[in-house]
Amino acid sequence: MRPYTILSCCMSLDGYLDDGSDHRLLLSNDADFDRVDELRSESDAILVGAATVRNDDPRLQVRSPDRITRRCTDGRAPQPTKVTVTNRAKLSPEARFFTVGDAPKLVYCATDSLATATEQLGSLATVIDGGRPVELAAVGADLYERGVRRLMVEGGGEVHTQFLTEGLADELQLVVAPLFVGNAEATRFVGPGTFPFTGGDRAHLVETRPIGDVVLLRYVLNHSGAADVSTEEDQGGQS
Ligand SMILES: NC(=O)c1ccc[n+]([C@@H]2O[C@H](COP(=O)([O-])OP(=O)(O)OC[C@H]3O[C@@H](n4cnc5c(N)ncnc54)[C@H](OP(=O)(O)O)[C@@H]3O)[C@@H](O)[C@H]2O)c1
User: Fold this and answer.
1) CB of 133 sitting under 6 A from ligand 1
2) Which of 2, 33, 181, 208 suits a disulfide with 12, CB 3.0-4.6 Å?
3) Could you give the CA distance from residue 77 to residue 63 in angstroms, rounded to a whole number?
4) DSSP bridge partners of 220
5) Which residues on adjacent β-strands are paired with residue 50?
6) Domain count of the chain?
7) pLDDT of 77-99, one tens digit each?
8) Which residues span the domain enclosing 151?
9) CATH no. for residue 183?
10) What predicted TM-score, i.e. pTM, was given to this entire model?
């Protein structure tokens, strides 16, 4: 069993997640950031790749006090668990992933970096041996064991590619921003791979929503085309 898994990202018109510079590219707008905050508040855990932790230094927190209160009223933790995956374990203990908030932090690390990661991050996060490379299917199963029923994946491209090509994603919430990047060195939404929806096999478009100057495209990625709109603890597990 694994959590119901939603991939979430914002890309440029030419399919990039960033512009290849050292600075974070703000592709979306405030109204869409608020939608992402809602999606975070409905999630039990949020996963990003180690490069996103290094490059963007995200907090991965629900910001709205009302949403935090709602989570508590519903008997859930105030904040989703933060999750990352790494082979090399080159993560700064000062990253906001580790320093902001009291939510549990999980680092799934390649076996040969486990000792280094435990030494550097063990006081800040739970470091878990994920094999070599870390198998995302096993990560999903372990998260499910830890009570995660709804997982939000916030990138970057390498992580999105694996969730899609390994058939581990149930839903894609893709936002398109009205600008071009045009830099082949920048990160694309996905890299090459064998994707489940290709050729005549099409994902199910279940919603399009303009949000200011960006557009949300919501796709269901299972073959029945059924979305899971539940956030209940006892629902949403995928086998
Ligand atoms: N526009 C958006 O919505 C959005 C959202 C998120 C990120 N981004 C952008 O995306 C860029 C990063 O994307 P990216 O594709 O370069 O990287 P990424 O997917 O964030 O992270 C890749 C890294 O994660 C680790 N990793 C991934 N899969 C693994 C596995 N199976 N086992 C072990 N480790 C694994 C590796 O870390 P190690 O190198 O540590 O081994 C790998 O280098 C950033 O520049 C960020 O700005 C944009």
Assistant:
1) yes
2) 181
3) 14
4) 171, 204
5) none
6) 1
7) 999 999 999 999 999 999 999 99
8) 4-220
9) 3.40.430.10
10) 0.95
pLDDT at 222: 79
Residue to mutate (ligand 1; options 7, 11, 17; most atoms within 8 A of CB):
17
In-domain check, residue 166: yes
How far, in Å, CA of 50 to CA of 52, rounded? 5
Q: Whose CA is nearest to atom 37 of ligand 1?
A: 86
What is the rounded distance in angstroms from the CA atom of residue 137 to the CA atom of residue 37?
Answer: 26
The answer to the question of residue 236 being in a domain is no
Positions of E strands within 3-143: 4-11, 45-49, 81-86, 105-109, 126-129
Q: Which tens digits make up the pLDDT trace of 148-198?
A: 999 999 999 999 999 999 999 999 999 999 999 999 999 999 999 999 998
Mean pLDDT to the nearest integer, 18-46: 96
225, part of any domain: no
- Interval between CA 72 and ligand 1 midpoint (Å): 31
Is 227 part of any domain? Answer: no
